[in-house]
C-alpha cells in the first residue's frame, strides 16, 4: 500500500509514535551525559573544589535539549561529553565545563546573570533553568541571531540576547549577581568586575589565545575588594574585541 493511500489519522499516529521514540531516545542519551558529567566532576573534584555539582545544575543539564543548539551535522553527537563545532570557527563547550562553570557561579533562583559569549545559546539555557534572568551577549552576529531564535523557540522567556562586544559587559542591566565568560581574555576585563554586585562571582577562563587557560573564580567582597581562586586548566576560543576597541 502506498503511504498516500493511508488514512490521515494513521499517518499522524505513525509520525507521533516515531517522534515520541526519538524523544525517549534523547532523554536516555541526556541521562547518560549527566552521569558522565557527574563522574568527571568527581574525578576533578580536588582541583575544582566541586566533586559534586548542585542538584539544580544537574537537573538543568538533564532538561535542556542540547541537540537543538548544535548544527544538524552534529546532532548525533549532541549528548557526548565533548565540545562540538557550531560554525563561524566557534564551539559549544563540553557539557562538563558548562556544568562546572554554572556550579562555580553558585546560582540562586532569584539571580540576574550575565553571560559573555552566547555561542550556541546552550549555556544561557542551562542558566535560564536555574535563575530568574539571563543576559547574554555575542560578538558574531549570525551566531547570536541563531541562538536567540533557538532560545525563543524553546520558550526561554527569561533570556535577553544581544549582539556586541561583551568586554564592556551590559551596563544598562548591571549590577549582576554573577557573570560567566565563555571565551578567553588575556586578563579579567575590568568592566565586568565593576558590574558585579558585592558578594557576586565572575567565572572566566584567563590566558593567551591558543594556550591553555586557567579557569578563575573572582569574588567581589562586601567591601568591593576582589579575591581570585584558580581551578582547572581549560581551553576556550579567545575573547575577541570589536574593531577599534582598546
Ligand atoms: N557559551 C557558548 C560557547 C561559547 S564559545 C555555548 O554555550 O555554546 C565562545 C563564544 O564567545 C563564541 O561564540 C565567540 O564568538 C564569542 N565571543 C568571543 N569574543 C566575544 C566578545 N568580546 N563578546 C561577546 N562574545 C564573544
Shape: globular
How helical, in percent, are the residues? 25-40%
Q: What name is given to the CATH topology?
A: Rossmann fold
Mean pLDDT: 92
Q: Please report the distance between the alpha carbons of the first and last residues.
A: 68 Å
The total tally of domains equals: 1
Structural class: alpha/beta
What does the main sheet amount to?
7 strands, mixed
Strand elements, count: 9
Report the sheet-strand fraction: 15-25%
- Rg: 19 Å
Parts with pLDDT < 50 across at least 5 consecutive residues = none
| CATH architectural category | 3-Layer(aba) Sandwich
Can you tell me the CATH class?
Alpha Beta
> How are the strands of the largest sheet arranged?
5-4-3-6-7-8-9
Helix and strand element order: HHHEEHEHEHEEHEEE
Report on the structure:
The chain is of the alpha/beta class and 246 residues long. It has one domain: Rossmann fold. Helix content is 34%, strand content 23%. The strands form two sheets. The chain has a seven-stranded mixed β-sheet with strand order 5-4-3-6-7-8-9. Strands 1-2 form a two-stranded antiparallel sheet. The mean pLDDT is 92. It binds S-adenosyl-L-homocysteine. The site of S-adenosyl-L-homocysteine (SAH) has 24 residues, from strand 2, helix 5 and strand 4. Residues 90-93, 116-117, 119-120, 122-123, 137-140, 143, 165-167, 182-183, 237, 239-241 line the site of S-adenosyl-L-homocysteine (SAH).
Amino acid at each position: 500500500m502506498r503511504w498516500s493511500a493511508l488514512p490521515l489519522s494513521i499517518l499522524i499516529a505513525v509520525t507521533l509514535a516515531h517522534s515520541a521514540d526519538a524523544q525517549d531516545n534523547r532523554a536516555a542519551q541526556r541521562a547518560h551525559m549527566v552521569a558522565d558529567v557527574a563522574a568527571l566532576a568527581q574525578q576533578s573534584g580536588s582541583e575544582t573544589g566541586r566533586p559534586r555539582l548542585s542538584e539544580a545544575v544537574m537537573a538543568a543539564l538533564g532538561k535542556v535539549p542540547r541537540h537543538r543548539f548544535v548544527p544538524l551535522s552534529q546532532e548525533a553527537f549532541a549528548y557526548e561529553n565533548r565540545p562540538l563545532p557550531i560554525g563561524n570557527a566557534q564551539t559549544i563547550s563540553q557539557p562538563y565545563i558548562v556544568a562546572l562553570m554554572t556550579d562555580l557561579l553558585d546560582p540562586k533562583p532569584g539571580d540576574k546573570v550575565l553571560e559573555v559569549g552566547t555561542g550556541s545559546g546552550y549555556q544561557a539555557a542551562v542558566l535560564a533553568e536555574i535563575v530568574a534572568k539571563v543576559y547574554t551577549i555575542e560578538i558574531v552576529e549570525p551566531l547570536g541571531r541563531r541562538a536567540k531564535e533557538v532560545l525563543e523557540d524553546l520558550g526561554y522567556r527569561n533570556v535577553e540576547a544581544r549582539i556586541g562586544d561583551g568586554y564592556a559587559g551590559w551596563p544598562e542591566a548591571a549590577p549582576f549577581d554573577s557573570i560567566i565568560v565563555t571565551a578567553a581574555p588575556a586578563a579579567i576585563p575590568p568592566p565586568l568586575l565593576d558590574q558585579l554586585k558585592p558578594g557576586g562571582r565572575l567565572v572566566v577562563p584567563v590566558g593567551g589565545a591558543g594556550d591553555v587557560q586557567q579557569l578563575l573564580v573572582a569574588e567581589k567582597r562586601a567591601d568591593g575588594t576582589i579575591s581570585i581562586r584558580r581551578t582547572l586548566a581549560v581551553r576556550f576560543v579567545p575573547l575577541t574585541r570589536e574593531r577599534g576597541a582598546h
